[in-house]
Amino acid sequence: MKIKSFILFIFLSLYTSFVFSQENDTHAIIVEGVNAMMEGNYSESLELLTRARVIAEEEEDYKNLFVAINNIGLNYHKLLDNNEALEYYLESYKIAIKELDYSYEMTSLNNIAILYSQENDLDKAIEYFQKAYDLAEVPQDQLKKGIYAINLAQAYNDKSQANIAMPYIEEAIKLLEADEDYLLEAEALQAVLLHALGKEQESENLITSLLPKLKGNRYAETRVVLFLTLAKIEHVKNNLNQALVLGNTALNQEPINLETRYKIYSLLHSYNEKANNYSQALIAMDSMLHIKQEIHDLRSGRQYQANKVKFEVLNYETQLHDGRERIKSQKRLILILAISSFLIIFLLLWSLRLSRIKNKQRKDLLARQEKILNLELENEKANNLILENQLKENETKLLLEQEQHKREIESKNRKLSAKALYLIDRNRLVETIIQELEQSDKIKPSREVTEHIRRLKGLLKSDEEWENFVQYFDEVNHGLLNRLKEKHENLNANDIRFISYLFMNLSMKEIATIMNITPEACRKRKERISKKIELTENEDLYTYISQI
């Protein structure tokens, strides 16, 4: 049993959504035509849709042209003239590929596949369903991709290839989680596939959970499919009586079409024969023959109606052709009138020639004024260029002055270094004298000698020269020491003094001599200062001072 009603439902819903997405006069005609088709007035519907098609072709309105042609095909599909329907679907498919986007192409492919499926040309049906499914990957349209996955699964199931169909239906279930109606149809087909794969218990459990949810006329065909699947499962279990009960339950579902009834009676006939219920099997056989005749009569009636509608549409197209010829004649008349009007307008324009000449002269004057303005602009640009050159010269001059200033600072720093070295030598000399006075055996200790030694030591501790040195250092280095004091108020005078000598690139030994301390004390002072200004182990004190 195939879920054909579900596939057809998708088919119809897609087309009505196309129709109601347009907003113009052609759209109104198409809506009227679709409504007539839904009411079974196929002749009226085809006339309206043919008119809409002609208008859309003239206006190159490809969207409405696509919808009109598709719905013409749908009319023939409902009239069971699938060959005619296929021609229109193929025509709409060509328009979708050439003029429209992938969404229209997907719909055409799906509808063509449906026709092939109904004609039992399953290979062709799968080919077109697969194309529609692949196109749905482009916009990531989960709903359409899920629908096409269901159709592919159904087509493979019809070919008795349930193992290929199952992955498609599993994907459809994931994609259709947000749409309960489509999800129920997908799960119903999954139950059928589980039975086809021999997973009877899983199929039965799934059907049992689905049947309470499938209420209303929409799911009548789907309920039939599930009841017949349960009947087949009971048949596998050799429970023929229960299988017959389920078959009769399927028969009582409403509404179901004649083809579905025929398949139910066929199953009941087979099971009754196996159960030796020959009278019931005969009744089922009679019902099958009766339904087959009804289907034949219906197809014959629809075929006659389709031929009649074709004839009426042909007449209508002839009338449209005649109408278009009349329109062409009217257009020729309008063209003649337009040419006459043009000649009259030309005479009027000739009378305005003098005024145009005046306008031309005015334009020439404006052009000359514009030229003068352009010259003024060019002159202004030249002046700006001169100013730019002057600015460049001033910048060059400033750079030279900065370079000269830099050399002066370097000269002064050399003098500072020389002064510092002088202090070093002087202090060394004084220390040497003090040591010789204190250690000499030839000089007797006396008050006078002691006084001289004290004075010499006082000379080593004198800050007067240091203050002069600091003032001169700060002038040369643009207030470096003042900035240092502002930034690190916790530095004392000896720290500042040490930093000054360090900035002058004096060695630890030279600094120790100037400050009258040991080299070891000098190194410790450097570490203490680094901690005061919160330097890390990787940061150098000299580098930090240079950046300030």
Describe it.
This protein has 23 helices and no strands. By secondary structure, the protein is mainly alpha-helical. The chain is elongated. It starts with a helix and ends with a helix.
Mean pLDDT: 80
Q: Roughly how many Å is the radius of gyration?
A: 52 Å
Helix content: over 70%
Assembly type of the chains comes to single chain
Task: Give the end-to-end Cα distance, rounded to a whole number of Å.
Answer: 90 Å
Number of strands: 0
By DSSP (H or I, 4+ residues per run), the number of helices equals: 23
Strand-residue proportion: under 5%
User: What is the approximate shape?
Assistant: elongated
User: What summary fits the major beta sheet?
Assistant: none
Task: Give helix and strand order, one letter per element, not per position.
Answer: HHHHHHHHHHHHHHHHHHHHHHH
Low-confidence stretches: 1-23
The secondary structure category is mainly alpha
Layout of strands and helices, then pairs:
Layout: H1 4-19, H2 25-38, H3 42-59, H4 62-78, H5 82-99, H6 102-118, H7 122-135, H8 142-158, H9 162-175, H10 180-196, H11 200-210, H12 220-236, H13 240-251, H14 258-274, H15 278-351, H16 353-439, H17 447-461, H18 464-476, H19 480-487, H20 493-503, H21 508-515, H22 519-532, H23 541-547
Helix pairs in contact: 1-4, 1-6, 2-3, 2-4, 3-4, 3-15, 4-5, 5-6, 6-7, 7-8, 8-9, 8-10, 9-10, 10-11, 10-12, 11-12, 12-13, 12-14, 13-14, 14-15, 16-17, 16-18, 16-21, 21-22
